[in-house]
Each structure stands twice: as C-alpha cells, then as structure tokens.
Batch of 2 targets.
Target 1
Amino acid sequence: MHTIDTPADSRQTDAASPRIAAYQLTDYLERLGVEVIFGLCGHTVIALLDALKQSRIRFVSVRHEQIAAHAADGYARATGKPGVVLTHLGPGLTNAATGVANAALDSIPLVVIAGDVQSYFHGRHPHQEVNLHQDADQFQIYRPFCKRVYRVDRAADLPRIFERAFHLAQSGRPGPVLVDVPMDVFSADLPADAFQRTPPPIARPSLDDETAARIVAELAEAERPVLYAGGGVLSGRATADLAALAEALDVPVAHSLMGKGCLPDGHPLLLGQTGFWGTPIANDSCRHADLIVAVGTRLAEANSSSWDERFTFAIPPTRLIHIDADANEIGRNYQTALGVVADARAALGALAAAASHVRPRPRGSLREAIGRGRRAFAANWDREWTSGQFPMRPERILAELRRAVPDDGFIVTDVGWNKNGVAQQFPINVPGTFITPSGLATMGFGPAAVLGVKLAWPNRAAVSLVGDGGFSANPSVIATAMEADLPVIWLVMDNAAFGTIAGLESMHYGSGFGCLFERHGQPYRADYAAMARAFGARGVAIERADDLGPAIREALASNLPTVIQAPMENVPTPTPGHWDINDVYRRGA
Ligand SMILES: Cc1ncc(C[n+]2csc(CCOP(=O)(O)OP(=O)(O)O)c2C)c(N)n1
C-alpha cells in the first residue's frame, strides 16, 4: 500500500486514531441525509461500495452511467435534496456526462463522485487514465457543466471538498458538482474525526420591503399584467405564494416548460405555457401585457418563440421585472425595467404579503376571457380524447393517462410528443408532478429519471411517458427497476420514428430520411412489451385504443415494472408560437 502525503499536523492526529477514508466518507454522507446513491461499479470505486454495503445508504446499481445521472436528477427534482451519483473513471465518467449536463441546464443539485487512477501514478499513464493534455485530466471533461470540479489530490482534503461539494450543489442556483477521487484516497487512513464540518444552512436572499411594495403597486396598477413562472418557482416550492399573489392582485399566470404545474390546471388565472409549443392565450397575453413579472426563469428560446416579438414577448414596450436567484439570467435577452436577485419563494412570499392589503385595478372579465381562450385551443383536438383510431391518436394516449393516474402521481417525460404534448395539453394539478428535461432536452432522460422519482415516493404512481426512440435508447432501465424493485410504468408512444424530427424534416425537405425506423423500406417496430417480459417485468402491447386505460390501471395495481407499448400515429404537436430554426432550413439540389 502506498502512503498518502498528508500535512504534518494531520499526520499527528492520524496516528492517534486513523480510520479508512471510504468508511468515514460514507458515515458523513449518512449524516448529510443521503438516502440513495445511483451508480455503476469499477475497480476505482469498490472501496466505497464496501463502505456503502455496511451503511444505511441505498446503492442502486445501473447498467449505464447516464441512467445513474438521470435517476439521481429525478430523485433530486422529486425531493428537493441533492442527488448523488457514483461512477468509475474514464468511460464511466463520460457515460454519465450527458445526464449531469442535463441536470446542470435545469439547475438540479447533484454531487457526482468519480473514482480515478491512483494518485501516485499520475503522469505514468495508468490504465484508463485520461491524460492526452495533462496528467489525470478526466475531471476537466465536466468543466463546462459543473458549478465546480474538484480533484482530491491529498486524502486530507477529502472532508473539506465533500463539505464544499454539498454546499455548492445546493446554494445559489443549484447544479452539479464533481468530486474526482483517486482510488488510493478512498483507502487512505484519516483521523477518525476527519469529517467535522457540514454545509451551512443558508438564509435565502429575499426582497426588501420597499422593492416588494413597488412591484406590488406596479402589478396592481397595470392594465394587462402577467406573472410569468419558471422552474425556479417549482424547485423553490413557491407555488402557494405564487397563487396567493396572483389571486390577491387578480393577475393571470403564464409559465415556461419548467414552470408547468405552478398553478393547478383548473385555476381561473392560469394561461398556460408560452412559446413554440405553448398556447395562443398564453402567448397573446404575454405579447400584449403592459407589465410582466417573471420569476425563476431564463426566458429561454423555446418558451420565448426565439425572442421574436411577433409571437410571445414584446419587451419593450412591455415592462419586464425579472426575479431570479442568478444575476446572470437577468437582462440577457430583454431590456429589463428592474432585476431582482432573490430566491423565488422568499420573493413571492414577500410580494404576496405586500399584496394582501392592496386593491388592484378592476380587470373586468379577465377570468372569462382566459377560460374562453383555453377552451378554444383545446377545441382543436378535444374530439381526439375519445378517438378509437388505431394506431392511436397521441391526444387519446394523454387523455387515458390523465384519467388513470391520480393527481399526485408523477408524469416523467422524455423529449418528443410526450414532452411537448404534456406541456401544452395535459392537466397537472399537483405542483412538482410534471418532470421533464428542458435545457438540454435529453432523449433518454425520462425512462431513467422515473426510477429516482419512484424511489423518492414509493407510494405514489410514477409513469415515464416516452417515445419509442427515447425508450429504446437505453432499455436497461428495466433491469434496474427489477433489481431495485421500483414498480414504474414506461408508456411508450410508438410511432416507429424519431417522430418530432421526422416531422420537421418532412415539413422542410419532404422526407423522413434518417429519422424513421425502417427495415428494407418498411416501418420497423420492435416488440418492447416482449422485451420487458424478457427482463422479468410486465409487458403489454396495446392492440385497441380502448385497451390503454385498463392497461395503465392494471400496471399501477400490479406493483411490477411495466412497459406499455401504444402504437400511435406520427402527427405533430400544435405549435402556436415560433421557432427560428424553421427559417434556417434551405432545400437544394
Ligand atoms: C440525446 C438526444 N439526441 C437527439 C436529440 C434530438 N431529438 C429531439 S426529439 C427527437 C426524437 C425523439 O423520438 P421519440 O423518442 O421516438 O419521440 P417522438 O418524437 O417520436 O414523439 C430527437 C432525436 C435529443 N433531443 N437528444
């Protein structure tokens, strides 16, 4: 065993009562409240696995590290606690990268623990070391999407670095932090009380009374104000404060993709989602607003119709007040009348309190107009909710899902019809039950993230609604669900295509080349239900539209992981907004 260099003072304590770092680290993670770690083994991390084996922390072993990262991300979204991922070096770390980047772009707190080559071999090119530019360089791969990357160069730094990692992942704008641990550090001796410090509780930044009163006065006096909610409102658990503010001042609420669920679907002030896949009433209300107070949002491209003032936001002349935990987000794309760096819950709480004794300008028949607008848009497809067509209409699939899953059940989408359709057309009544990959829009997120969601809430339904492309990207999620006994449902919307992209290509280039699943020129459909059965799970192939509702209910009652394969027609989701890419494509010879 090689000796680890430690400073003189810690060597003294070491001698008094040393204990192996991996076991102390595991105790520390327990103390921090870590309940579960998602990961995949390798020779660099089995020392930590042995410690986990003896602990109260559950280790969920996956078959691909991307699944671990998405599952930890799902767990973090469903609990508000940081997700923890364990990976081997090199290929393990790079496999997890997509999932970690996905979490980063949605501001989800993760701590990624990666094993690395032995520290005393740095520079000698040991097995699986990433070293083309610098010795033991793998942690650099995570730089663009982690709040901080740490390589533990001395065992004595391990406690400090883990305290920092958990602090940083959760504080300010949450996000992933990497802790890269040379494998000999896990096996090093540390003084028995080496892990002393825990991350400090943080008082979240709020609004001062004067600013709160000013914003409330502006909202009360505006003729056509809109509150615009982003994912920060959901992750900040601020939906009750948002509702209180909206109701006190009679202000309608629009939201981004990540903000879906900010008000229950039937709320009379709810406009819906904005942007390309939004709703006309949300886009129109925002475009004609004289004041928008946006909270916890990036005002990102998809939700802002590529920032084209003809479709969603016309700022100015609309006055924008933007409240966000991250100052970087304020003023990026729009001239902003007032930026406020504050936590969504603290800010909305302060605004709601200030609004409680303010009388707003009368808003006439605002609620009736919202209801009319929402019904008019739904009239474009509401007959499809009961369509007996087979392959099914996507709207019927959504309608059956909504009827079968209780309001507190989780709908975890992927990308494709599932995400866009649910965001636009699917009622969400309990905040936080809609979980979706927004910033990176990663195909393959949903089927894996649902595992972490179910683990967090074993007594609530958890369904991954996913396309056949996204589902077949990594079907080993079924093995993990079986091993970890997580009775989730994957409802596969099977259109034998990367349908969303096939639709775009067909619109602009008249073909589905490279986007359709075909064999010898014919549609190619895999039997995902049979595949589920091969894993020992339940698999149900839907053969008539009327069979889907009962199949979902049976799956919920079965308490076994279940794949339901629903053949569907490939039709595009309605797009009331604008996406600039449609002006980019040019067809040539
Ligand atoms: C990892 C990844 N690769 C590619 C894309 C681009 N992309 C966006 S939607 C989509 C198609 C998804 O197909 P499917 O899961 O079958 O759902 P559908 O569009 O048919 O509803 C693709 C390939 C992506 N978002 N993520």
Target 2
Amino acid sequence: MKSSLNAARRTRELESLGREPVDVLVIGGGVTGVGVALDAAARGLSVVLAEKHDLAFGTSRWSSKLVHGGLRYLASGAIDIAHESAVERGILIDHTAPHLVSPFPQIVPLLPQVSRGHAALVQAGFLAGDALRLSAHTSHHTLPPSRRISGQEVLRFAPTVRTSGLRGGLLGWDGQLYDDARLTIGIARTAASLGARVLTRCAGEQVTGHGAVLRDQLTGDSYDVDARVVINAAGVWAGQVAQGIELRPSRGTHLVLSQESFGGLSAGLTVPVPGSTSRFVFALPASGHRVYVGITDEDAPGDIPDVPLASEQEIDFLLETMSSVLRWPLTRADLLGTFAGLRPLLHTGGDSTADISRRHAVITAPDGLVTIVGGKLTTYRRMAEDALDAALAASGTSAAPCSTRRLPLVGAASRDALATLAAPDRLVRKYGTEALAVAGDVDHAQAICEGTETTAAELAFAVRHEGALDEDDLLDRRTRIGLDPILRTRALDAARAALVLP
Ligand SMILES: Cc1cc2nc3c(=O)[nH]c(=O)nc-3n(C[C@H](O)[C@H](O)[C@H](O)COP(=O)(O)OP(=O)(O)OC[C@H]3O[C@@H](n4cnc5c(N)ncnc54)[C@H](O)[C@@H]3O)c2cc1C
C-alpha cells in the first residue's frame, strides 16, 4: 500500500535525504505537523516530516478525544473560533474521517446542585450549539438538535447517576474520536500515500527557514535537508525549535476507569464545577470498555517533560466532582490509570491559562521559518492550511490551493458504506475500510491477552502499515493498551512477538 509506513520505508527514505532540496520540511509529527504534511503533499509539493519520537508522541495522544463544535469559545464571545470549530467538526465527521469520528451524545443531569438559573444557562448554551451546527451546514441527521430529557432517559445513558432530586437532564450532540493518536497516524499515512516522507525517531536540529539538520535517533546519523519552506509544528516544544516563541503550557489531566465503575455509560456525562458557570468535569465512554474522566487546566511552567504526569490534587478534584452526581462515589480503587497532556498555548501575559485564547497562531520569523501553535485537534486541517499558506507566501513559492476539505483519510468511507462492511464494528470504528484487511488475518485473530480485545492481527498491521517501530509505539499509540499500566505489562510479550513477525 502506498500509505504503508514501516521500518523498511523509513530506512529507504532516510537514505534519500539531502540528495535534492524539498519543497516543504515539517518539524513535529503531532496532529498539526501531519496535517501540514498532508496539505502540502495534496498540493503536489515534495514533503519531509521529521518527528523526534513517534507519531502522536506529544499532546496529540493526551486529548479528551472530542471533536468540538466550539461551544466553549462562544461562551467567551469568540464567535469566529466557534464557527471555525463547527465547520471543521462537520468536515471530519461527514467527509474526511467518518470512521474515526462519531456523533456523540452528551448529557447534563439536573440535580439539586444545578440551580434552575444555571440549568437555563446550560440550555441556552446547547441552543447556541445547535445554531453553530446549522451555520456550519452539518445536518441534524448527523448531529440531532439538543433537547430536554426525562430522568429515566438520563439513567438510560448513565445508569449510576443519583436519582434523589433528579429532575431530568439536558442532551446535546458533538463529535467524538475513536482515538486521537489514531487520527494523527491516519493523517500521516494519507500524506505518505501522496508521497510525503514521514520519518519518525528523527529530530530537527538547527532549524531555520531554509532547512535543518535531521538526526536519526536510532543511529545518531545526521542529514542536512534544504527546503523552500520550513514549518515548526513542535507543539509545546516549539520554543525549543524556533527562537522567540514563548509558550505557556497548561496541563489537562484525565482519569482512566472501567465501564463497570459507571454501570455502562453510553453518553458523555457532564457535571458543572461548583462555583463556576463555565467549567465542567465530564466522563466520556471510550474504546476498550473504558471511561475517561477529565479535565483540569493547570499552569505547567518549567521544563517540559516528555510524558506529563497527573498531580494528586487533580486526581482528587476529578474523583470528587464526578462523584457528586453518582449514587456510588468513585474512589482511587476505581482507577485503571491516569493521563495528562500539555496544551501548547501561546504566552499572552494573562493571569490564568484557562483565560488564554485557544485560537491558533501562525508566526513567521525574519528568515521565513513558520511556527504554528495553539488551536486544537478539531481544527488541525485549518491550522495546517493557514500555516502552509503563510509559509508559501513568505518564500514566494507557488502551489495549488488547499484541497484537504474533501480529501478522505485512509480507511474513510461514508457512514452507510461503513455499516455494510463485513468486519466487527470495533474494527470498523478503528480502521474504517481497512478493517477488512485486519479481520482477514485469521491466523492472528486471537486476543493478545486477558483484559483486551486487541488481536495479534492488529499489532501486525501496526508494524507493517502504521509505522510502529517498537513496543511503546504498539502499546501506547497504535493501541491505547498502555493507558492501563497493569494491562500494558500483560501485553508486552505479544507486542515483542509482533515486531519480529515475518
Ligand atoms: C488535556 C488536553 C485535552 C484536549 N482535548 C482536546 C479535545 O478534546 N479536542 C480537541 O480538539 N483538542 C483538544 N486538545 C488540544 C489538542 O490536543 C492539541 O491542540 C493538539 O494535540 C496539539 O497538537 P500538536 O501537533 O500541535 O502538538 P503535539 O501533539 O505535541 O506534537 C508536537 C510533536 O513535535 C515533536 N517534536 C518536538 N520537538 C521536535 C524536534 N526538535 N524535532 C522533531 N520533532 C519534534 C514531538 O515529539 C511531538 O510529537 C486537548 C489538549 C489537552 C492538553
């Protein structure tokens, strides 16, 4: 497959570096960087993307995995960002990744701690969300309008919600990703199918507007790459790649729990944070029979860790706030794991990171190096378009206009076509049309260990086609087994075995 990423292709493409200048060099293989690589390759440009670790190694695997309609931006008056988010949500859900992005119900149970005034505010927000959906031309067949629901309906979606004082609930719809790391990998493979050289374990050093030294992290070898256009998409590390970029990272933490702790949750369960009208804690049903509970927003100054860690206070805050609406409080014994990510927010001098705009920023240095930071996963496509347009203009390079609005990612098909695929639903949601190839590998169809449905066929596919080079890639990004550390230990042998399959 032209979209296949694997060790052999990586070696070949590393060897080809430096022979002639490339049109576009991208530093960073998070969702933003791979978005730029895809946009550039789709415009017919030659592309090299260098990622220091693995695809989605950074923030792009630690998100809430929501494809937002932009409601929270509306609350702060940023109508343009809200509209942009709603448009990009529609593109992902209807055209570019219907396999990975699904319509997602979210409920707010109306319990005594939510006053009638507060409930009216939340309802007004949901109605504004409906208006945003309409303005983005997303059909109500895809995302139904919000509505008030009965207490019984609340309990059908969220069986463990407190019943005493429950006077019904509010229901709204948004988009949910099967998994954020998999979206990033899907975009990278689509770029690769159009000829982009996507090189993991390859760090960008001495990055300028005209090229960089790329260092192979596996061998230490270095390659001088000249480029017409260079784009720094290194997320929270962007300030280490380009001078003059100052970020103010903010940490967001999630808890990982089993569906059993929620009695089978089938909607996002949203709980207003006491004392705030704009902050919420939510429980999100996730793949692998899990529920993620998030989210916090904590200033995270100082050195940037490769893998950020949740603080004890954040864990307590999330458990307590979510428990306030449940019949049986959650405790630390319910935790399978935690994860935390750093938002790459631009330093704007404000008091709190929660107040910093989530608007993305494109910054062009005097030598033409373009840095793209901020924004969010939902708007990666638009961020890529803006960054590439700016870089092409700065370098005087001409290219075809952006065409990614209607460019399906590998595995994408219409929702109707996906529904007819002869493969298990779980695989269709993860792989789209490629589920047929994974399900067809009958020799490796057994689950790899107790506690997961992941099969050896999925690991083999990740090694052959999705660029997995070691067990971390397999367990922490191609699958999300690693979010449960005990399960991760159990799955290690299977991951090692997949790496040496013929
Ligand atoms: C807790 C949390 C929840 C979120 N939830 C949502 C959500 O539900 N929906 C949504 O739309 N958005 C969400 N976001 C925002 C979204 O996740 C981020 O905006 C997005 O993932 C940032 O992607 P990125 O590619 O810019 O950065 P990253 O994903 O961090 O990618 C940067 C990459 O650059 C690489 N790199 C660094 N230095 C170098 C170098 N010198 N050479 C080569 N490579 C290098 C890193 O290894 C990394 O892989 C959330 C963010 C957080 C923190």
